[in-house]
Request: fold
Amino acid sequence: MKIYLSRWVCLDVESNLRRAGEEAERAAAEGAELVVFPESFLHGYTRAADPARVRVRFSEISAAYPAVAFVFGSFSEEGRNRMTVWMGGREAARYDKVHLFEPNGEFEVWTPGDRYAAFQWKGRTWGMVNCNDIRFPEQTRTLKLKTRCEAFIAVAWWPWRRDHVWRALLQARAIENGAWVFGCCLAASEFPGEVFAGAGNHVFDPHGNPVYPVEDRFYEVSFQWVEPVIVDPLKHSRPIDDIEVFSIE
Reply:
């Protein structure tokens, strides 16, 4: 499968809405089956984008390429940081970011989501993760155990100065869950007042091995995995609720 992870440079909302279609056209023309855009790629933290108009644009883009699944990292709607999946002109899945990032004032911008989410596509289950969620291993583990996720798509607005953290967390989530992880981060924001250098895009296989792009933003992966993972979380996970605390004087 050929997968396209955007290296998005965020400008003003009007430019971003136009460029989303241009980038989708390029990805589809090169044979991508899954196209992923990063978190808040249309408006960042400081701009406003009309949710109704955003939805019309997402519908237009996905309708133009009905064989492609589009993950539009997120946009603000109903007070949530909402990650959506679109196919054939309609929304097929949604996820509202659960673990908001307090240092960026996200609790003042959004209300946290109240559930995890995954979608089934091409015979596989894909878990949805948004930026700071990747710091919470219980989210991907719950999705793995309850939905048998084979892959996680993580979108982000993560700074370059902490790329090593973003990369390490993505890799850890791949290893501990025996699952593919696709991390798509904003490349940069050049909007005045919100100039930002984003972290990198990273892909890891179920063993935690990095997968590098074959051409710019394009990754080719084979899900016909023949080598078993060292520890299968579905087979060996043991739910433990009791904790014993010893007091040593």
